[in-house]
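Handover notes (outgoing to incoming on-call)

Open items:
1. TIM barrel protein: sequence verified, structure written out, both below. Nothing else pending on this one.
2. Nothing else urgent.
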Amino acid sequence: MAHQFSLAHLSVLTTSPAEMVQIAAKTGYDFVSFRLTAVTTTEHVFALQNARALMNETKALLAATGVKVLDIELARMPAEIEPETYVPVLEAAAELGARHILAQLPDANRERATERFARLCDLALPYKLTVDLEYPSWTETPNLAAAAAVVRAVNRPNAGILVDTLHFDRARDSLEELRKLPAEWFHFAQVCDAPAEIPSTVEGLIHTARSERNFLGEGGIDVRSILDAMPAGIPYSLEIPTDTLALTVSAEERARRSIRAAEAYLDGLHGQRLKKSA
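TIM barrel protein structure tokens:
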């Protein structure tokens, strides 16, 4: 099976979108996944929606290399942020030819969070974008069940769930429950490995997620089972920040190691699937 991979921005966070496209093309990725809004107050963000010259440069490189944009992040809606805030991001995503918008709902008011997610879906629909709900385990939407409740309640044709193998593992989600959910809810997955031991603090969970994930096959997450429970053929966004490695290894080389490890791991997964069906 030929897998399709995207280079996620968190893997090379200080690299510009234009540089990311060049790296993706050199190392064999089909897609890139851009972060156009900041998640923390300290991280640098390349806001293409506000940077016309960089937008034009990035689009030219996409056209020249054939690399596509898989998804744009992040429409994060805590209590103080309305979905309309992200209209410029939706416009930029459409201009780039992206397929999906990644969203988070760190809001304890579940009725408000659900209503805002529905509005974001409605805003994204004219741009032909799906809105895929991610559920970091330390947020107010902490697991697959909570994300599924939102998507089921909004009942929008472009609503989906983004499974990140790290968050799935840290939330102790159920493979059985994942298999039961509608296949059309899953448009792509974020994929990484990580140490088997789950940190006991929010700080520890966030540190692993944002700074020190593992390449596939180098950690203790049962990535194989998670992916086997999801629809076949969806693209995999390799979101694997490795801040310690970044001190000595270039962004291009880290991206290369990430995709080579994923190819080796998933070739083994495909072989196991063929055996099962024989």
